[in-house]
Design goal:
Blueprint: H1 40-46, E1 51-52, H2 59-62, E2 71-72, E3 76-79, H3 83-95, E4 100-103, E5 112-113, E6 117-120, E7 127-130, E8 135-139, H4 144-151, E9 156-157, H5 168-173, H6 181-184, E10 191-197, E11 203-207, H7 212-218, E12 227-234, E13 236-237, E14 240-248, H8 253-264, E15 272-279, E16 294-302, H9 306-317, E17 324-325, E18 328-331, E19 350-355, H10 360-370, E20 378-385, E21 407-413, H11 423-434, H12 454-458, H13 463-476
Parallel strand pairs: 2-5, 3-6, 4-6
Antiparallel strand pairs: 1-3, 7-8, 8-12, 9-13, 10-11, 10-12, 14-16, 14-17, 14-18, 15-16, 15-20, 19-21, 20-21
The chain binds flavin-adenine dinucleotide.
Length: 489
């Protein structure tokens, strides 16, 4: 297939250099590595984890995460082993006017960071589940798969995103729309408290009773608020759901997309579905029936009994003959199989937005750009139905953006960094322009991709939430140490 030419290019260069900026514009921005100017030995003497400067063995491993197109060249990286390490690192950064950068599991958008003190949370992998209260205490470096594996013997599940490989804290800080979004809401609805290191280097708890403004902000506001070292979330008593994916071959992409769109008009709130037009690579790791196919995957999740689930799924899974159909009873610990997102690190370029409505004209616009017979470097184009419980905020309020969107559209480019500067943005922009009539003003920070402008950044939250977040960020990070948002806003 002609579209595979995109895969064959060497992955030699990463995306262009861009610099985040300090949102509150108080600090100097360092564009060169000037580690010699900082007394890193002083920091080494205060933290238990490694402090690695350019040229040190282990720096490359320390600063690598899932998205290989994100590169970090900080003044130094601190591999935090506990709260105190994080606090020491933040205080050191404040003393030396260094912006603080963050790396958890590295599933965020492609970015090139060339400044600051990088705090790496991947060693914070502690996990405790209280079987009585069903509260899980989760370290900031832990992935959902570990939480799900520990909850399974107790019949408990977390309300997660689509991929078990993503960091639990990173996803929750942005809200976290996942495969049970319509029946159960977003991940941050289940957050009960966060342990946070603020811009002053203080270790505080944010919960409904302690620092409630920070708690409100951390449930969806994501960055610029501090470094979360652990969170406590409420798990749900749900050992099994009726869920999976039906995958249809190229000739059926249009039928399935159009059929799904019609079906969503009367979808019950308890059923969460999505479709994704995918160019599956011709790799051994991809199951044989779909390997190398341009196909459409229809994902289905219902947290009720098998008969009801089968009844709801029937009109969808029979829209056309399938290549694979895994929809059936599924342990919640295996929820990642609904989307089967990639788990091996790769260079990723993505862009997302939300839609306020959806109809057959939208289907035509999407098919014109990524449908059967169209050559495109957009490897996956996914539509998720939102609404249901995800549209309803928690009673005490939270900073989650995108609750008003009825659907999300998310597209991922082929993993070739040479295309990240021009080819992928151009293709995605064409798609975005074509679907503008259906696009919502609001998006969600976890799905927005890299922020391209201040307006894009602002669109990740409703205006009143954005304004309130600015105030909370100023209160807990008065020096603007925690860089967040696009350059030059
Ligand atoms: C395969 C894949 C599937 C995904 N599926 C979903 C999904 O279903 N639903 C959804 O909502 N999102 C989804 N996402 C997006 C994902 O939730 C965000 O990119 C999230 O930030 C990833 O978390 P991380 O820990 O890997 O972050 P990193 O890339 O390590 O960090 C990204 C940013 O998150 C913030 N952050 C992370 N940890 C902390 C912390 N401890 N304290 C303070 N700030 C922190 C910082 O601003 C940081 O710069 C998906 C991403 C991928 C790659």
């Amino acid at each position: 297939m002609r579209q595979w030419r995109y895969w064959s290019r060497p992955e030699s260069k990463f995306a262009r250099c861009w610099h985040s900026y300090l949102p509150l514009c108080v600090h100097r921005v360092y564009c060169l590595n000037v580690s010699f100017a900082f007394p890193l030995d002083e920091l080494r003497g205060r933290v238990a984890g490694p402090v690695l400067a350019p040229g040190d063995d282990g720096l490359a491993d320390e600063v690598s995460g899932f998205n290989l197109a994100t590169s970090f060249a900080p003044v130094a990286a601190v591999g935090a082993t506990n709260d105190a390490d994080v606090a020491e690192a933040v205080r050191f950064a404040a003393r030396h006017s260094l912006p603080v950068r963050m790396l958890a599991t590295g599933h965020g958008p492609a970015e090139r960071v060339t400044d600051g003190l990088l705090v790496v949370t991947k060693r914070l992998t502690h996990l405790d589940i209280d079987a009585e209260t069903r509260i899980a205490t989760i370290g900031a470096g832990l992935k959902w798969e570990a939480v799900q594996a520990a909850g399974a013997p107790l019949g408990l599940t977390a309300i997660t995103g689509s991929s078990p490989d993503v960091g639990a804290v990173g996803l929750t800080l942005g809200g976290g729309f996942g495969p049970l979004a319509r029946s159960h809401g977003v991940a941050s609805d289940y957050a009960r408290s966060f342990r946070v290191v603020t811009g002053g280097g203080e270790i505080v708890t944010a919960s409904a009773n302690e620092n409630p403004d920070l708690f409100w902000a951390l449930r969806g506001g994501k960055g610029g608020l501090g470094i979360v070292t652990e969170m406590r979330i409420q798990l749900v008593d749900l050992p099994q759901i009726f869920a999976g994916a039906a995958i249809f071959d190229t000739p059926h992409i249009e039928t399935v997309l159009r059929g799904w769109i019609d079906w969503t008009a009367s979808a019950p709130d308890d059923v969460t579905t999505s479709v994704a037009i995918i160019r599956f690579p011709d790799f051994d790791t991809v199951p044989e029936p779909i390997r190398g196919h341009h196909a459409i995957a229809l994902r289905f999740a219902y947290p009720g009994d098998v008969e009801d689930g089968a009844r709801w799924a029937e009109p969808l899974r029979t829209l056309a003959p399938t290549l694979i159909d895994t929809i059936g009873p599924l342990p919640t610990s295996k929820m990642g199989l609904i989307h089967s997102d990639p788990t091996d690190p790769l260079p990723a370029w993505d862009l997302g937005l939300q839609l306020s409505s959806i109809d057959q004209d939208l289907a035509t616009a999407i098919l014109d750009h990524v449908g059967a017979g169209v050559e495109s470097p957009l490897m996956i184009t996914e539509l998720r139905q939102l609404g249901g419980r995800a549209a309803i905020d928690v009673p005490e309020g939270s900073a989650v953006g995108g609750r008003s969107g009825r659907f999300s559209l998310y597209t991922i480019g082929v993993p070739n960094p040479e295309l990240f500067e021009t080819v992928l943005p151009t293709s995605a922009d064409r798609l975005v322009t074509a679907i503008a009539p259906w696009t919502s003003k609001e998006t969600n920070v976890n799905f927005a991709g890299r922020f391209r402008s201040w307006e894009h950044f602002e669109s990740a939250w409703p205006a009143p939430i954005f304004e309130r977040l600015v105030g909370v960020r100023t209160k807990y990070d008065p020096l603007g140490l925690f860089t967040f948002g696009p350059k030059g806003g």
